[in-house]
Amino acid sequence: MKYPESSAAPGNGAQPGLWEQGWYRFARRLPSPNHAARPAAARIDLIVLHSISLPPGHYGGEEVHRLFTNTLDWDAHPYFASIRDMRVSSHFYIHRNGDLWQFVACDQRAWHAGASHYRGRDNCNDDSIGIELEGLEGDSFEDAQYETLESLSAAIAQHYPIQHVAGHEHVAPDRKKDPGPGFDWQRLQRALGWTARYFPVPPKA
């Protein structure tokens, strides 16, 4: 798969500033067809964190990019039969080495949370921004991923009225367990300097 260069690469006429119609300047763009308009009254005040690897536990490949762009070879691995023809996306994806990709403009509705409920509202896709971390639920994450996540979250909160950060496990607890106990919520809170009210539970020691 040949990836495009970031729209913010030098010499390509990128506009100054961090955001352009929901696209983040420091992420490489790979647009996904799996998105829709947000409801007119949507208030984008939630960040939902996920973990993903394809096949599970395999890092460094193109499979997640292909899943989000509907180009995954379903016959390339036995696991893919269980997700065959799935149409999903996330706004952002952070590789183990900290590389950041964006698949859907944050002004649009990505398909990452599924059936969900949080802070008294259903359908979290309507008013959230989804961030996928390359990883396995319950496993740990890399320093480079935290560093990218921290800077990205701060940039999102400067542009959108973020009031909550939660895991997929918190917005869909009957179905999902990611990012899981290997994710360091305390580290994220400390780096961002946000109060505990932004987070689903008191950060783990």
Features:
two-stranded antiparallel sheet, Lysozyme-like, disordered N terminus, alpha/beta, 20% strand
Fold and architecture overview:
With 205 residues, this protein is α/β, with parallel strands linked by helices. It has a single domain (21-198), classed as Peptidoglycan recognition protein-like (Lysozyme-like). The chain has helices spanning 63-68, 143-159, 168-171, 185-192, and strands at 19-20, 23-24, 28-29, 35-37, 46-52, 92-94, 100-102, 108-110, 117-118, 121-122, 128-134, 164-167. Strands 3-7-6-11-5-12 form a six-stranded mixed sheet. Strands 1-2 form a two-stranded antiparallel ribbon. It has a two-stranded antiparallel sheet with strand order 4-8. α2 crosses α4 (185-192).
**Any guess at the CATH architecture?**
3-Layer(aba) Sandwich
Major sheet: 6 strands, mixed
Distance between the termini: 41 Å
Instruction: State which percent range the strand residues make up.
Output: 15-25%
As for the CATH topology, it is Lysozyme-like
- The CATH class label is Alpha Beta
Our count of helices gives 4
- Shape assignment: globular
Task: Supply the helix-strand structural class.
Answer: alpha/beta
**The CATH homologous superfamily:** Peptidoglycan recognition protein-like
Q: Uncertain regions: pLDDT < 50 for 5+ in a row?
A: 1-15
What is the secondary structure topology, with strand pairs?
Blueprint: E1 19-20, E2 23-24, E3 28-29, E4 35-37, E5 46-52, H1 63-68, E6 92-94, E7 100-102, E8 108-110, E9 117-118, E10 121-122, E11 128-134, H2 143-159, E12 164-167, H3 168-171, H4 185-192
Parallel strand pairs: 3-7, 5-11, 5-12, 6-11
Antiparallel strand pairs: 1-2, 4-8, 6-7, 9-10
